[in-house]
Amino acid sequence: MISFLKKMFGGSEGGEPEAKSGGEAAGSENYRDCTIVATPMRADSQWRLAGRITKQIDGETVERAFIRADLFASKDEAASFSLSKGRQIIDQNPALFAPGSNENV
């Protein structure tokens, strides 16, 4: 039962989702003073859309992680859509890196 829940919610051996533990980068791009890193997560035979957005603020790197329910047949496809979703998150959230904002979006 626990292994089923781990699979369902993206748990890894350490009990945290891959994106939180710095999943393997599958691509990155700079967009509006931010860096978007695609980190697709394995979900059985498919790949889940995931990534992180980083920005330098006062000499410090601030990061926001995102994981979505979208699944893709290939890692490359998931990475491409992760970069696209990262751009959308930046465009739709002007306060993404405001003080006190949540580290996960």
In short:
With 105 residues, the chain is an alpha+beta fold. It has helices at residues 2-8, 75-92; strands at residues 27-31, 34-38, 41-43, 46-57, 60-72.
Question: How would you describe this protein?
Answer:
This protein is an alpha+beta fold and 105 residues long. It has a domain at 25-92: Double Stranded RNA Binding Domain (2-Layer Sandwich), CATH 3.30.160. The chain has helices spanning 2-8, 75-92, and strands at residues 27-31, 34-38, 41-43, 46-57, 60-72. Strands 1, 2, 3, 4 and 5 form a five-stranded antiparallel beta sheet that branches. β3 and β4 form a beta hairpin. The radius of gyration is 14 Å and the shape is elongated. This is Transcriptional activator HlyU. InterPro entries: Transcription_activator_HlyU. It comes from Pararhizobium mangrovi. Residues 1-30 are annotated as: Disordered.
Name its key features.
105 residues, alpha+beta, Double Stranded RNA Binding Domain, five-stranded antiparallel β-sheet, 5 strands
List how many beta strands DSSP finds.
Answer: 5
* Residue fraction in strands: 35-45%
Class of secondary structure makeup: alpha+beta
At CATH level 2, the architecture of the domain at 25-92 is 2-Layer Sandwich
Shape: elongated
Radius of gyration: 14 Å
Query: Segments where pLDDT lies below 50 for 5+ residues?
Result: 12-22
Distance between the termini: 28 Å
Order of helices and strands, N to C?
HEEEEEH
Residues in helix, % = 10-25%
Largest sheet: 5 strands, antiparallel
* Number of H- or I-type helical stretches: 2
